[in-house]
Design brief:
single chain, 456 residues, alpha/beta, inorganic pyrophosphatase (n-terminal core), Diaminopimelate Epimerase, Chain A, domain 1, five-stranded parallel beta sheet, globular
């Protein structure tokens, strides 16, 4: 039975989305400004397709940050309407100074609300933006309020949620409600399957990042030898295996994740739902992989073109996916042997490529890093150092909030930081790394101790 939006999202959130949608009809040309990662790029594509259906002309930008420089650039533009997605809730001061209407579609925890901006954020209505709704699903809800023809944009929305790690263990909250409705409408079709690429299993294991198998990922000879020892042909695909062969491979790989001390939620990655997206004629996980590789290698526009259905862009994105996979595996294999730098409550490593630090930190944290400490990846650049921090659900349950830790520590060294409790980032002045790390370590330690008990 088809459901209406009132059955799928909180009334207050829908009211805000409707207020924001009301600004669209007054503009002939809409400026789109989104984060550069998969969640932001898919959000940009959703906005582009939905707004063009309304007859609007668009100008879209994917950026690493919404900072003073980008705000100054926007200030000089003569826009009729600006829509910011997957960022903005933490930059209201900058956006409120702009001389034209602004819509913010964000899922990061807001510091405050705004009376000047149409501010759509699930946190205001008890929806966890780190787990139950991401940038692309918030943007998709806005698009659905604009026009319910936009149910066919479920694929990019789901790819964004996958990229934001909100598919781990299955979708929950508003994500689940929206995607379940998309399933009922036959827009997406779920399949339960082993999370390896549709390649010969020797190559699929070698190229596997999520899940990452210590000693096998990034090592073709070791992966082939491992499979032969199990009596499996490395040149066969998962589809070629009979039911017994698939069960055997799945159980052995699960045991391997346990042996390498992967986080409990890592096992949710091994066998999971894969969603075939009918309008896009591809799996949502594959769409996310293409977009992510484009974004991380500085080709955000190409990733957006893939989401918009450009088949020539897809063939180019396939080559970038191979390049991206090789780079990430290189860092992970190196960290297997070298290890990380431990502090009392956190651990860290250096990564030459700032665009890859987050995925390296997140993958390692999930699959083989020391599970007792959140991980920070540092990229020392010209004049500044970029930081990506990742934790696990166990860390969050114990009281860790990396967004607070990085924001507080960065501000003390004249930098800035924020994000989610489980995944956050910061930019600090070059040369302040030691002081910053010491403060993050202290703050995380304080968080783990919990709030002081009254009367003590």
């Amino acid at each position: 039975m088809v459901k209406g939006l009132d059955d799928l999202a909180p009334e207050g959130l829908l009211d805000r989305a409707r207020k924001a949608a009301g600004l669209v009809d007054d503009a002939a040309r809409v400026r789109i400004f989104c984060h550069y990662d998969p969640d932001g790029t898919t959000s940009a594509s959703i906005l582009a397709r939905a707004l063009m259906r309304r007859g609007k002309r668009i100008h879209a930008t994917m950026a690493h940050a919404l900072d003073g420089t980008s705000a100054a650039r926007l200030q000089e533009e003569s826009n009729e309407l600006l829509v910011v997605s997957d960022m903005g809730s933490g930059q209201l001061d900058l956006l409120e100074s702009l001389p034209y209407p602004v819509v913010v579609l964000d899922h990061h925890k807001p510091i405050r609300d705004s009376e000047k901006i149409a501010h759509v954020n699930p946190h205001f209505f008890g929806v966890d933006g780190a787990r139950e709704m991401c940038g692309s699903t918030t943007t998709w809800l806005f698009a659905l309020v604009l026009d319910e023809r936009n149910w066919d944009l479920a694929g990019p929305a789901m790819a964004g949620a996958i990229g934001d790690k909100q598919a781990l263990g299955g979708f929950v909250g508003v994500n689940a409600a929206l995607f379940d409705e998309a399933k009922d409408r036959k827009v997406v079709v779920p399949e339960r399957r082993l999370a390896l690429r549709d390649l010969p299993i020797g190559k699929a294991l070698t190229l596997s990042i999520e899940p990452y198998f210590r000693g096998l990922s990034g090592r073709p000879d070791a992966a082939a030898g491992f499979l032969r020892a199990l009596g499996l042909d490395p040149e066969a695909s998962v589809r070629d295996l009979d039911a017994g062969g698939r069960r055997k491979l799945t159980s052995i790989l699960a045991a391997r994740l346990v042996e390498q001390h992967a986080a409990p939620e890592a096992l949710d990655v091994l066998v999971a739902d894969r969603y075939w997206v009918e309008p896009d004629q591809m799996y949502a996980h594959d769409l996310e992989a293409y977009v992510n590789s484009c974004d991380r290698l500085g080709r955000e526009g190409l990733g957006m073109a893939v989401c918009l259905g450009d088949r020539e862009a897809l063939s180019r994105a396939e080559k970038l996916l191979d390049e991206y996979t090789s780079k990430v595996l290189g860092y992970l294999v190196s960290l297997e042997s070298k290890g990380l730098f431990p502090k009392k409550h956190i651990q860290f490593f250096y990564c030459d490529d700032a665009s890859l630090a987050g995925v390296v930190a997140g993958t390692g944290m999930l699959f083989f890093f020391d599970q007792t400490r959140p991980t920070l990846g540092l990229s020392v650049l010209d004049g500044v150092t970029k930081v990506s921090a990742r934790g696990t659900r166990a860390h969050i349950a114990a009281g860790v909030d990396l967004a607070v830790a990085l924001r507080e520590a960065a501000s003390e060294v004249s930098g800035n930081g924020g994000g989610h409790n489980i995944a956050s980032g910061a930019t600090i002045p070059k040369g302040k790394e030691d002081r910053f790390l010491a403060r993050v370590d202290e703050i995380v330690g304080r968080q783990l101790e919990g709030p002081p008990v009254r009367g003590q």
